[in-house]
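INFO batch 0412 | record 1 of 1 | parsing
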Amino acid sequence: MSKKIIITIARQYGSGGREIGEKVAALLSIPCYDRELITMSAQKENISPEIAENADEVAANSLLYTLAVGSNPFGAAHLFGYTMPLNDRLFVLQSDLIRRLAEKESCVIVGRCADHVLREHPGRLSVFVYANLEDRRARVASRHDISEGKALDLINKTDRRRASYYNFYTGSKWGRYDNYHLAINSSTLGIDETAALIAECAKRKIGR
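INFO prediction complete | emitting tokens
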């Protein structure tokens, strides 16, 4: 692949977004980054992976967004004598890592506000994956071996958390169609065909 393509995937919980991202990456023979970003950021900051996992995609109770997107947020925080909450530090670390990966290679990045972090990147194709509630509920219940009632509670809780995280750190609205190039209902085509559609769109973008 001569031109770089960075596919960012935001997703409703239970829509199959992570699996779709992995399949898109396989179809295009490029890497997919999801939970790997947690491990890589934790290693860089010398944070326990378990602690980083708990803080991942959770908005902090702070007003550090302007520092987080600045050219040197750690330095700015130091000048103000302020120690960043772990959530903010992880957002900054992951954002920097996402930018570095995007400069280095074509890849698929799942979550972590990547569509916003890379909003100026010319090779970005941003996708929001959603699905019919009954499909999401069944998928989550099967994955975690729980009742569909508990699955629905988990869906609502996770989507609220993801929306809060995205809205807090980007100043925009999670799931709003005009934040993305594509919004796809994975229930319409299924996981494999949705991945194939996104991969084809990526190829067409590269070929323009």
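INFO post-check: The beta strands are 6-11, 32-33, 107-110, 124-130, 182-185.
INFO record closed
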